[in-house]
Each structure stands twice: as C-alpha cells, then as structure tokens.
Amino acid sequence: MQPEELHGRDQYNTALLKAVQQLSPERAAKLWYPVLEWNEFSELLCEIYERLDSRTDHHLEGWGPNTVEVYVPGPGMDPIPMSLLLANADQFAGAIALAHADPKRYVGFQRLSPKSVWNRGAADLVRVPIIHAPVILGADNGIHVKISRSHEAWVHYKETHTRVRYSPELRQFNTPFSNILPAGDDFVFYPIPGDSRAVVCDADNRPIGWTVQMAVAAKADKQSILQAHGEAEHIRALMEAGYRERHAPAAAQIQAMREHNKAVIGGELTEDATSLSKTPAEESPAYTQMDTEDEGQPLF
Q: For 190, how many CA atoms within 13 A lie in the half-sphere containing its CB?
C-alpha cells in the first residue's frame, strides 16, 4: 500500500467518524468504512494465521520426517490419513481394500501442517523459570528504575518514548510471599516480551523477584477502572500491613494509655491506680496537645 493512499484513507475515515455522530443509529449502520474496525481486524487476522498454520501444501525446509501416509480418494478430493481409516476399519473397509490393492494410485504422503507439528512437540517443551529471563534477554535489555517516593515504578522505553507503570509489589520466586519495593531505591527491570510480568534485579543485576504491569484505567471502560482501583487498594493494603506490623508495640501502648485515661476521667480508678509512670507515648508532643474534651475523635 502506498503511503499517499494510507494517508488519504485515514483522513477520509476520520471525517466519517465525525459525521457519524450527527446521524441516527440506523443511518450510521449503513456507512462503509475504508479501514476495518479493531474487532473485525483481530478476527480476520486470527483467521489468516489459522489458515497459514493449518496448511499442508507448503515447502518448508527440514520437513522431511514431518509427513503422514494418506489415502487419496480421487483427483481434487481431500486426502484422509491412513491412521484414521485403520482406526475406523469397519466404516472404511472399502477404502482400506482399495489402498492395499493399488497403493500407487490411492496411497500418498502429505506434509504435516505447522500447527500439527507444533502440537505434536509441544508436550516435550520445558517452561523456562522466570528467574532466567535476565540471562535470556541480556543485560542490554535491562531498564534502570528508581522507585518514587509514592512507591511508583515506571519503566521508560527510550526507543518508543513511552513508559509503563509496574506494581511496586515484589513477588518472590516460587513462594507466595511478597513485599513492597523501598521508595528511593534503584533496581533493574527486565520486562518479558509479550507478557505483563517483569523480573526485578538489584543494583548488582541479581534477580530478587518479579512484578506485573499496573492496569491502565480508561475513562469509558468501567471494568478497567475497577481493576485499576482494586490493584491500587491491594498495594495500599500491603503497605499499611507492613506499617501496622512495625508499629504494633507502640499502637498497643497508645491504646492502653487511652483506655486508662478514659477510666480516670470517668472516675473509675482509685488514687493509687492513677499513679502510673509515664510511658514514652505520654512524653511525646502529640500527647501534650490532646483534646480530651472530644472523646469521639482519635487522639493520634
């Protein structure tokens, strides 16, 4: 296709998209577009690939052993694998007899389709563990990432001038455990082509875990908005869980202090019970600024 033709089609298609907004749905449905809609293109592309992968009339190199013996009923007729005839001998007794009587006429060899060869050997393939991705991709494909103060991990692609946001949740290899990448630290990301995952290495290029791309919320797509919101809430929960764990002793002390003070104000303690030594929390500036008149609001 000539570049001029492509440019003209694009301009005409843009004009149609603007005009269709002024038409009724019945009239808009009758328009013919110079380019395919995305779903139409995807369906057509999948059909083309299916035909290419299923073809047997090819001349691919190194295909010698990838052939099958077939029964040829006649000129222009589709051949039938002999294995299929023999597996249903009662149904194809006549064809089997003809094949044995005149093999030169009725028996031939057909090349297997790329799809058939792939399916036959797929079971022998071994899935490479994700930890080996940096070695396979090579150090040149590693992308340096600095985790932002808000724990955002952006991978910048210099060639395309684009960037992709990855989750700060670092998932460990072969375990269900994960942690949040520290803000301000530097890492090396290895995005896996055709996959949403990326292997994360430390500054010395040693694999330490993997992460996934964050969902991008489209304004008109409710499902993507919900997915993005869910991922953000998951990250927030992980960060808060770590915070609560680190500060659990202090939180317990503060809670005990608040319950004690509430009892004192209500006159439920004796004079001896109120003579408690000050805790570190009581000595903090936040404690001296408490508003004890409003018990409905948290003090810290």
A: 24
